[in-house]
Amino acid sequence: MTAAIERTGEEQRAVIAAFVRDRAAALDRGETDIRTDLAQIGEAGLLRKGLGGECLDEMVAVVDEVAAESLTVGFSLWAQRMALEYIDRAPQSLRDRYRDDLASGRTIGVTAMAAALKHLAGLGELPLLAERTDDGITVTGPIHWASNVFPDSVIVFPARTAEGDRLVAVVRADAEGITIADPPELLALGATSSTSLTFDGVRIPRSHILTENLTGFCGTIRPTFMMLQTSFCVGVARASLTEAATRMHGLGEQFAGEYEELSARYDSLRERLYRFAADPAPIPPADFIRLRLDGSVVAVAATRLEATLRGGAGYASASATNRRFREAAFLPIQSPSEGQLRWELSQYE
């Protein structure tokens, strides 16, 4: 019975990977966006993998295989799944209201929690300020960067009060007082609808405050946050190394040593990711940080090697090689950025 379930999971992932592959070029050209992909993944039931304390390795595999076909979709899938993760840990009323729609992909989720993780690392204050009211809070300030931002998206965000409280709340992107900036033109990932937002006295009812224990909440979600980010790094790295392997002849032989060294680093990264996902409880916090940092570094190096070996054909903007190279350029600056990860690791040394 177990083997049959595993084969079914593999078949589902293969179908979704093919769906994403067929749309990747159109996404890159800006002819569509990620909502169709997320709905397809949700309809297949794959967004629910690993919820409620279940083993995360299947969800890691979904993000991994999707990102191998399109890092754009893999990145948005991570954001969607994290928004669902937050709601799954929320009070029952919020779960009842949003969980199924997020899990199905009918509603798109925005994770705006990067500022919270940066704040808890000691690297800045929360930009959103909450003021208590009789029936909840009003919130003012910016979200400097978020993805999956569509008018009907659901946003999970952190805020602080003047008294020093730190909380997490939920709001729809079309709520009165929220202004969504026009998305900037990006090197890649344009289909993720990534942009900034401004809150101006946005009313949040008490029922939409997810938690008032920001530190404890972030402690519980951070391993999942980091592992699923590493998953899309692993996916795009694998795709690039697979392509590079076909070009290790002729002039490509000059890169054999670099390819072998990078492949070994990739193998170590992937082994750690799936081992951590199977049993994250005993893993020290520094190991999750190192995992995510290594994921970014290996992915960028792999896409660069693929582009080098592919030559002029890979320089053409319509090629998958070029797309992966441009998409991976975002990884060192995505929050937590490479600088933040290196700084956090230094605190354990």
Which short descriptors sum up this protein?
Butyryl-Coa Dehydrogenase, subunit A, domain 1, Butyryl-CoA Dehydrogenase, subunit A, domain 2, Butyryl-CoA Dehydrogenase, subunit A, domain 3, eight-stranded mixed beta sheet, 12 helices, 54% helix
Question: Could you describe the 3D structure shown?
Answer:
The protein has 349 residues and is of the alpha+beta class. It folds into 3 domains: 2-104, Acyl-CoA dehydrogenase/oxidase, N-terminal domain (Butyryl-Coa Dehydrogenase, subunit A, domain 1, Orthogonal Bundle), CATH 1.10.540.10; 109-213, Butyryl-CoA Dehydrogenase, subunit A, domain 2, CATH 2.40.110; 215-346, Butyryl-CoA Dehydrogenase, subunit A, domain 3 (Up-down Bundle), CATH 1.20.140. 54% of the residues lie in helices and 15% in strands. It contains 12 helices and 8 strands. The chain has helices at residues 2-28, 35-43, 57-69, 71-88, 92-104, 114-120, 214-245, 256-278, 285-310, 312-315, 320-328, 338-346, and strands spanning 109-111, 129-133, 136-146, 154-161, 166-172, 178-180, 195-205, 209-211. Strands 1, 2, 3, 4, 5, 6, 7 and 8 form an 8-stranded mixed β-sheet that branches. Strand 2 and strand 3 form a beta hairpin. Helix 1 packs parallel to helix 3, helix 4 packs antiparallel against helix 7 and helix 7 (214-245) runs parallel beside helix 9. The radius of gyration is 20 Å and the shape is globular. Residues 1-6 have low confidence and may be disordered.
